[in-house]
Specification:
By secondary structure, the chain is an alpha/beta fold. It folds into two domains: 226 residues, Glycogen Phosphorylase B (Rossmann fold); 170 residues, Glycogen Phosphorylase B (Rossmann fold, 3-Layer(aba) Sandwich). Helices cover 42% and strands 14% of the residues. It is built from 13 helices and 13 strands. It has a seven-stranded parallel beta sheet, sandwiched between helices. The chain has a six-stranded parallel beta sheet with strand order 10-9-8-11-12-13, sandwiched between helices.
């Protein structure tokens, strides 16, 4: 991202507002700060006083300090916890009444629900729900029904719902989560874009330190290791790949996430014991790891817009992902990578074998992927458009208030 001073002056207000507007950005878990970098700084340099609200955590407090924002820690449970949720809602209401923000942006399921309810109760003038994905897509029964109602309530409390991708917007409308007029897409999608300077092609300087022999095929995955990310079929596809490429390595850059879709003990043990799988655990800066890959695999079942696909593309690495919500927006099939059906280890293995067998195709896709990422998803471009929308919404809200005051004053004089 670079230093804050490097941010383009176009984001600085051309004229000072009567009072510095306050923007609250709310997320559930500090882990989400991994995809917030640059966002708080962009809003601050656009004239907002920015406050980050999240559960307590070093990532959140550090990001806020680095980007010149305040931080309020409010514990929020990612899972269903009615009593804890009521406590969190009360704290959110108290905090919002104290801060009196002009704009709120809440995202991730729990913060999206509780934060938008609190913002509505406190009558925040501009309320935004940033929809990063739909967990309900892989849920069933009562859980799915509860999640759907929660999403509808969060959307109802917000004035607009900013969707991460075109297919996510279409799915939100199809599920009746919000009317189409309330659903917005900023540019081509993505909540934060990609840092194309940090993620760029270059020599592999990490493979040897991981014990990967030079010259062997390396396919990889970056992110949380869960069922909904398609890790079980990824392992099956890799075992098929080993029949034709016995020296291949699977590089898993990520952690065993203790969420509702966590991997079973057997699946975790399979990863740890596999002789051709290299598992790093959590890595704070993944940029060097993409350069060790020939192909990135993301066999996910649900997404909003996968950041790892953009990071790989910016690094000049072709991506194989699924034709699911969000993921299918992150690859131009046959140009920057390939799309396969979700849940199919066979289709995943065939696509990997096709790319490994054709180095020129891989190279051409990698070049096209970087050009595509730079043209549509460079972080500066995405955040420029986001800030422009938010400034416009706040200005519109202020104008509405002034008109209301003028009308009341005129009526009082009659």
């Amino acid at each position: 991202m670079g230093t804050l001073e490097a941010w383009p002056p176009a984001l600085v207000l051309s004229r000072p507002w009567p009072a510095q507007p306050v923007a609250v950005v709310g997320i559930t878990h500090p882990q989400t700060c991994l995809v917030l970098r640059g966002r708080l700084a962009a809003l601050r340099l656009a004239g907002f006083r920015v406050i980050l609200i999240s559960s307590p955590g070093e990532w959140a407090s550090r990001l806020a300090a680095e980007e010149g924002a305040g931080h309020v820690a409010i514990p929020m449970h990612r899972g269903m916890s009615p009593l804890a949720d009521l406590v969190a809602l009360a704290r959110l209401c108290h905090t919002i009444r104290r801060l009196r923000p002009d704009l709120t942006e809440f995202s991730t399921p729990k913060a999206g629900l509780l934060g938008n309810i609190a913002a509505w109760l406190c009558r925040v003038p501009t309320r935004i729900y940033l929809l990063r994905g739909l967990r309900l897509e892989t849920a069933t029964g009562l859980t799915r029904m509860t999640l759907r109602r929660s999403e509808r309530l969060a959307a109802a409390c917000a004035q607009i719902v900013v969707c991460n991708s075109q297919s996510l917007r279409a799915q939100a409308h199809a599920l009746g989560l919000a009317p189409n007029c309330k659903l917005r897409l900023i540019a081509e999608g993505s909540s934060n874009g990609v840092d194309t300077e940090r993620f760029r092609p270059g020599p592999d300087r990490i493979g040897r330190s991981l014990g990967i022999p030079h010259g062997v095929p390396v396919v990889g995955y970056v992110g949380r290791l869960t069922r909904d990310k398609g890790i079980p079929e990824l392992l099956d596809a890799f075992d098929q790949l080993l029949i034709s490429h016995p020296d291949a390595r699977l590089l898993l850059v990520g952690w065993f996430d203790e969420s509702e879709d966590r991997l079973s003990r057997e699946q975790c043990a399979r990863i740890k014991a596999h002789p051709r799988v290299v598992h790093t655990g959590f890595v704070p800066d993944t940029s060097a790891y993409y350069r060790a890959l020939d192909v990135l695999l993301l066999p996910t079942w649900r997404e909003g817009f996968p950041n790892v696909a953009l990071e790989a593309a910016a690094s000049g690495i072709p991506v194989i992902t699924t034709r699911t919500t969000g993921a299918k927006d992150a690859v131009v099939h046959g140009v920057t990578g390939m799309l396969v059906a979700p849940g199919s280890a066979d289709a995943l293995a065939r696509s990997v074998e096709l790319l490994l067998a054709d180095p020129k195709m891989r190279a051409d896709m990698g070049l096209a992927a970087r050009r595509w990422a730079m043209k549509h998803f460079a972080r500066r471009r995405v955040l420029d458009k986001t800030v422009a929308l938010y400034r416009g919404l706040v200005s519109q809200s202020e104008l509405t208030v002034l008109r209301s005051l003028a009308t009341d004053a005129a009526a009082a004089m009659e």
